Amino acid sequence: MIHLNDIHFIREERHILQDVSFHAEKGEHWVLLGKNGSGKTTLLELMNGYQFPSRGKVEVLGNRYGQVDVREVRKRIGYISQSLFEKMNLADTVWEAVATGEYAYLRFYQEIPEDVKKKAIGMLERIGLPHVAMQSIGTLSQGERKKVMLARSMMQKPELLIMDEPCSGLDLYEREKLLAAIREFSDQDMTVLYVTHHIEEIIPMFTHVALIEQGRIIAAGPKEEVLTPEHLYQAFQVPLEVEWFRNRPWIKVL
Ligand SMILES: Nc1ncnc2c1ncn2[C@@H]1O[C@H](COP(=O)(O)OP(=O)(O)OP(=O)(O)O)[C@@H](O)[C@H]1O
């Protein structure tokens, strides 16, 4: 599904990723966890083919990057990030913005077919936002924006869903609502990769965690094995305890 082998990413003499190998199989739901500047977004950009490694091999959904048209691979990947939202036209109505996900465009230049409109409104209903369908996306709250981007990414049921800090800037209520929506959309056929620096966002649907520190993966595997105080100290340099409550980790800083 995703195979990164011996990746090095060097820019302006900085070794941003060093000797990274990462493997995710179909149906696994991964969290990529690490502090600010550790290299998480860079790793996602390699997986989406927006960046190419200085050394090493990237293979996603059976395609070796460098030998295929990455735009074709991207059609099978749902990607949610702040930078994608910023590329959207804030004057577009919400249902139109969701409908663009059907074609992986950012906006339409011709009339949207009725069935695509219905599907987009159906997605908004599923995510609990049918009432904002006719508003422009620029008028939405932060939480609504994130949910709309999730609905958009689900128009063409992706085989791989990649999310870059989708809960950043959300209050507790909005965060939990968005996590519930992500859980609702992510079934076992879909591989999920979720980037965050907040341990409490690792809800039960996530099966695996990779910890990244200064461009190196320091631990990767089933979440219970990776989320130990020792590994987390290595990643964040903060002494802490981990408490599991209903299959979700919570931390106490010591
Ligand atoms: N093209 C580039 N040229 C130079 N430095 C870069 C480039 N791309 C990324 N970096 C640097 O690489 C480091 C890792 O960046 P990255 O955005 O991957 O971190 P991150 O883990 O996603 O951080 P955050 O959690 O703060 O978003 C940063 O120090 C960044 O400044």
From TrEMBL:
InterPro entries: AAA+_ATPase, ABC_transporter-like_ATP-bd, ABC_transporter-like_CS, ABC_transpr_CbiO/EcfA_su, Metal_Ion_Import_ABC, P-loop_NTPase. Its main location: membrane. The keyword Transport applies. GO terms for cellular component: plasma membrane. It is a peripheral membrane protein. It is found in: Cell membrane. GO terms for molecular function: ATP binding; ATP hydrolysis activity; transmembrane transporter activity. The keyword Amino-acid biosynthesis does not apply. Residues 2-239 form the ABC transporter domain. It comes from the Bacteria. Transmembrane segments: none annotated. Keywords: ATP-binding, Nucleotide-binding, Transport. This is ATP-binding cassette domain-containing protein. It comes from Paenibacillus chitinolyticus.
